[in-house]
Amino acid sequence: MTEKHHHLTPARTTYTSADVARKAGISRTTVSYVLNGNDAGHVSEQTREKVLQAAEELGYSTHSSAQALRKGLSDEICIVVDLPLSAHRTELLVSVQRDAFQHGYTPVAYFCYGFSAEQIHTLLLKIFARRPMGIFATASSMTTKHIALAQRMGV
Question: CATH number of the domain at 69-152, please?
C-alpha cells in the first residue's frame, strides 16, 4: 500500500467585530466606531486603544467586500490611464494615490495604454461593477456615454 501524505494547513479563523468587543470587554457599537474611524467625540482614547489592541491580538481586519455591500460603494478610488507614462504623469498618479490613501480610500490603478476602445469599455464595465467611491481617468479613456453609464450604475 502506498502511504498518502496529507498536508494539513492550519484552520483559518476569521474574527468579527463582536469577537473584538468580547475581547476588549466593551460594546460592539463602540468597536464599530473605532474600527470604522468614526470614534472622534464618541470614544475615549483609553477605550480606543483597548479596541485597537484587542483587534491586533486577534489579527482582526475589516472585510472590505462586506463593507462595500453594506454601503453600496467600495472604498476604492480607481485610476484609469490609457496614455504612456511620463515623469509628469507618474508624479501626478503618485500624488493622487497618496491623497486617496491619506483620506481613507484604497487607490487602485489600471493601466490600459494600447488597449482597443472595446477593451477599455470592457475594463470600465468591470470597474463600474466594483462600485468604486470615485474614478480618476484620463479624458481619452472615458466617453460621455461611459460617464452616464457610471452614474446610472451608482458610481
Answer: 3.40.50
